[in-house]
Design a protein that fits this description.
Pfam families: ADH_N (PF08240), ADH_zinc_N (PF00107). This protein starts with a strand and ends with a strand. By secondary structure, the protein is an alpha/beta fold. It folds into two domains: 152 residues, Quinone Oxidoreductase, Chain A, domain 1, CATH 3.90.180.10; 123 residues, Rossmann fold (3-Layer(aba) Sandwich). 30% of the residues lie in helices and 27% in strands.
């Protein structure tokens, strides 16, 4: 038996229960991982509140962790007992002391990467990678808008885009987060609680707009984000922390021939080779100093409910990890 967070019904953070679970032994093609550090992502909230449908009830939430392989099933050659590995994505279940996973879902974590850093960077770092390269390729001279610029993914987007030579505009909710966003490479920071971000983007860009908007906020910012785009601009909606955006009529895109996408990590890094390549690049960016990981909040795994309360109330910035 191991301890894990279990969810028996959708609801508030209080539905996250600390329970004993039996996980068994790894079958063919599987590994058993003893977690050292577990990443918290807003997608965990989406599953808990029913925005995304959980595979079944009860379930253990979580999509990201770093730990040590303690057992392997038949046929596994990509990992061995004692390896430090990480994973991000499906299956759910990282909010646990241990988890059994398909071996093809785990990637090696370099010795130079602390487990807390690894659990903070894999999902968010690979998300930043496909957002900046695959959804829209950010290049020198581009001007981009990043909402929630002090958040886990937002912080990495700002740092990476700045390193690519883009001009970065970021929105945040307060002065403390504004200071962090500037440290992370934002050239222009907008405190959206004090000023109209659409008007400020228009002012900063001399009325031209931005090439791309990275919007993880959703309902509160979606329409304004469209207004910030230049002709043939790209609207990338990859989250909805403020709620589902209102339906978008195609005519609202036709006004400036805009592009709109709602991407997910699982559709961009599908195979084990793709996961390996993406994770290596993310870890390399950390090692080279391009990406600075901010593990600003750490909680015991048993207090996952508190972590969810804080992330939903926007009391957090940077990354959040749970420690078993």
């Amino acid at each position: 038996m191991v301890k894990a967070i279990r969810v028996h019904q959708i609801g508030s953070p209080q539905v996250l229960k600390w329970e004993d679970v039996e996980i068994g032994e790894p079958k063919e093609g599987e590994v058993r991982v003893k977690h050292k550090s577990i990443g918290v992502n807003f997608i965990d909230v989406y599953f808990r509140t029913g925005v995304y449908e959980a595979p079944s009830f009860p379930y253990t939430p979580g999509v990201e962790a770093v730990g040590v392989v303690v057992a392997i099933g038949a046929g596994v050659t990509s990992a061995k007992v004692g390896d430090m590995v990480g994973y991000a994505g499906r299956p759910l279940g990282s909010y646990a002391e241990e988890q059994i996973l398909p071996a093809e879902k785990v990637v090696p974590v370099p010795p130079s990467i602390d487990p807390a850093i690894g659990a903070s960077i894999l999902s968010k770092g690979m998300t930043a990678l496909f957002l900046l390269r695959n959804c829209f390729k950010v290049e020198p001279g581009h001007t981009i808008l990043v909402h929630a610029a002090a958040g886990g993914v937002g912080s990495l987007l700002c740092q990476w885009a700045n390193a690519l030579g883009a001009t970065v505009i970021g929105t945040v909710s307060n002065k403390v987060k504004a200071a962090q966003a500037r440290e992370d490479g934002c050239h222009h920071v907008i405190i959206y609680t004090e000023e109209d971000f659409v008007a400020r983007v228009n002012e900063i860009t001399s009325g031209n707009g931005v090439e791309v908007v990275y919007d993880s906020v959703g309902k509160d910012t979606f329409q304004g984000s469209l207004e910030c785009l230049k002709l043939r601009g790209y609207m990338i909606s990859f989250g909805q922390s403020s709620g589902r955006p209102d339906p978008v009529p195609l005519s609202s895109l036709a006004a400036k021939s805009l592009f709109l996408t709602r991407p997910t990590l699982l559709h961009y890094f599908v195979t084990h080779d793709e996961l390996l390549e993406a994770s290596r690049e993310v870890f390399a960016k950390v090692a080279s100093g391009v990406l600075k990981v901010r593990v600003n909040h750490t909680y015991p795994l048993s207090e996952a409910a508190k972590a969810h309360e804080d992330i939903e109330s926007r009391r957090t910035s940077g990354s959040i990890v749970l420690i078993p």
